[in-house]
Amino acid sequence: GDTSSFEKVDSDEDEVISVGDRFEHSDSHWEVTRIEGQTGRRAQSLEAGSIKRGWARRVDRVVIPLTLTDGDVSRSSSIECSSGEIFSCESLIEVEGEVWRIRAIHTGNGRTLGGRRVADEIRRIYLHPE
User: Fold this and answer.
1) How far is 109 from 71, CA to CA, in rounded Å?
2) Which of 33, 69, 75, 119 could potentially form a cystine with 85 if both were Cys, beta carbons 3.0 to 4.6 Å apart?
3) pTM
4) What angle do CA 3, 84, 113 make, to 5 degrees?
5) Domain boundaries in the chain?
6) Cβ proximity of 31 and 59 under 8 Å
7) Among candidates 24, 46, 21, which has minimal Cα distance to 32?
8) Can you tell me the distance from the alpha carbon of 129 to that of 92, in angstroms, rounded to the nearest whole number?
9) Where are the beta strands (DSSP E) in the chain?
């Protein structure tokens, strides 16, 4: 999302923390994206007591960018949803009080005009008015 915060997360000193590990904190689910040792160097894994700083991203909620196109006019928006929510091409969704049809879903590996994708795989959804 658009916000960051500094938090202290408790663990055992000898617990090994690795990039990609998932954990629960403050009623949310998170994934470790980066860790640094006491010297400030990046590492893939470290014992918790050796970590100076770490980064994580929330994985139970995602923000999906949208492109809403009505004729020759396009505008951007976004929606927040659970990471497991499924979106299907040609289905209808409500955005900002209006009903739109999903025209295409972009996953980062290309755009699909058919099929369905889970929210945490989606990089952008393209919509046309219903």
Assistant:
1) 26
2) 119
3) 0.68
4) 100
5) 16-58, 61-129
6) yes
7) 21
8) 9
9) 16-18, 22-25, 28-37, 42-43, 45-47, 51-58, 61-70, 73-82, 86-88, 92-95, 98-106, 111-112, 116-118, 124-129
pLDDT computed for residue 60 by the predictor: 87
Using 50, 70 and 90 to split pLDDT, how confident is the model at 1? low
Q: Residue 101: what pLDDT?
A: 97
The identity of residue 110, as a single letter, is: G
Pairing of strands 61-70, 124-129: parallel
CB 62 within 8 A of CB 81: yes
- Residue 87's beta-bridge partner residues? 117
φ/ψ of residue 58, rounded to 5: -70, 135
Interval 62-79: pLDDT, tens: 899 999 999 999 999 999
Tokens of 94: 């409500």
